[in-house]
């Protein structure tokens, strides 16, 4: 098999999804499986649907269009606010989209009217992480407009935390979301289907005894794919963390000095010298270490998101990864497997030089 490659264990992914579907169902919460870091990979979406996820979420309309052709039998949710330039495509291919701008809602309504369909809308409210969402004081105006546009269907209210500034879901902000949806329903005499509390960052709060209140929906990506929650990167009990692994091939392995030498400057991927203790020349006293060079670089994955037992990631350039280890037994032509973070997965899936292998 070619390297570098992502090895994708579909059974492990199905286990993760089924486990979370069942676990959250006991709290009245349904799951949208967010496949955006896989570029809308149909094989993964089908696996999640078979495990019982309520819907599939994507951030880009191109991936929504791919999944729409697969006829998955579940709603497709555009989790990033639609671009004005793409509203026609959004209405044509996504059942629901997340929204926070009046002008976009009007454009979606016009596109839906032209296509003779009714487009679902989830209004996003800002609760502290300062990414998408209207302020609570402006939510009522958004609801008024959405309800006044007959080609739009207001399906719910949601929020997003943990992505921009790492603000964690907690009893205060989650109770505020429940309060807001209750207030909107009472004010307009309506019943909304979704109260979407957020993403995988919500899981520690729920596991610690958090009360969902009105929250009945979460958008999970990292938990289903990597078995971890994003706030602390801790493993979620009962889930696989190796459902997707990255494999790279060794192209050099030698004993070398433990420190570089010469005059340090910044590199293409740093703004600081590589070390503050660069020796002017090799000396007999400088310890030697075994270092391996792999055919994998910044263009293929986030080096900070790679890990392997008994290996240290020394650094990376655009297409080289340097690792070391006191007991390392790698040789030229050998393959090394890495566990990956969400950022490493996202970049690896995007790289045209990383192949995919289903196991």
TrEMBL record:
One of its GO terms (cellular component) is cytosol. The keyword Isomerase applies. Its cofactor is pyridoxal 5'-phosphate. The keyword Aminoacyl-tRNA synthetase does not apply. GO terms for molecular function: alanine racemase activity; pyridoxal phosphate binding. Residues 8-225 form the Alanine racemase N-terminal domain. Residues 260-272 have a biased composition (Polar residues). Residues 259-280 are annotated as: Disordered. It comes from the Bacteria. Keywords: Isomerase, Pyridoxal phosphate. Coiled coil: none annotated. InterPro entries: Ala_racemase, Ala_racemase_N, PLP-binding_barrel. This is Alanine racemase. It comes from Synechococcus lacustris str. Tous.
């Amino acid at each position: 098999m070619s390297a570098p490659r992502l090895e994708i264990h579909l059974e492990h992914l199905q286990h993760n999804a089924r486990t979370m579907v069942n676990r959250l169902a006991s709290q009245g919460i349904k799951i949208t499986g967010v496949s955006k870091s896989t570029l809308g990979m149909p094989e993964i979406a089908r696996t999640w649907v078979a495990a019982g996820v309520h819907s599939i979420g994507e951030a880009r309309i191109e991936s929504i269009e791919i999944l729409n052709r697969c006829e998955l039998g579940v709603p497709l949710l555009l989790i990033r606010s639609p671009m004005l330039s793409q509203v026609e495509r959004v209405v044509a291919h996504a059942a629901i989209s997340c929204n926070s701008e009046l002008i976009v809602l009007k454009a979606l309504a016009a596109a839906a009217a032209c296509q003779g369909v009714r487009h679902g809308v989830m209004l996003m409210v800002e609760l502290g992480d300062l990414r998408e969402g209207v302020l609570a004081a402006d939510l009522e105006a958004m609801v008024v407009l959405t309800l006044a546009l007959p080609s739009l269907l207001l399906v719910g209210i949601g929020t997003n935390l943990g992505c921009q500034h790492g603000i964690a879901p907690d009893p205060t902000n989650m109770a505020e979301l429940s309060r807001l949806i209750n207030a909107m329903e009472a004010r307009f005499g309506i019943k909304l289907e979704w109260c979407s509390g957020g993403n995988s960052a919500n899981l520690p709060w729920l596991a610690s005894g958090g009360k969902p209140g009105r929250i009945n929906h979460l958008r999970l990506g990292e938990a289903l794919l990597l078995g971890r929650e994003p706030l602390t990167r801790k493993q979620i009990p009962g889930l696989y963390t190796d459902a997707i692994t990255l494999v790279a091939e060794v192209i050099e392995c030698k004993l070398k000095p433990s420190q570089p030498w010469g005059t340090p400057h910044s590199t293409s991927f740093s703004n600081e010298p590589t070390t503050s203790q660069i020796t002017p020349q090799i000396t007999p006293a400088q310890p030697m270490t075994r270092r391996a060079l792999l055919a994998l670089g910044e263009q293929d994955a986030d080096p900070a998101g790679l890990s392997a037992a008994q290996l240290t990631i020394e650094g990376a350039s655009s297409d080289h990864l340097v690792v070391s280890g006191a007991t390392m037994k790698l040789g030229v032509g050998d393959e090394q497997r890495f566990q990956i973070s969400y950022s490493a997965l996202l970049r690896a899936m995007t790289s045209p030089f990383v192949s995919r292998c289903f196991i």
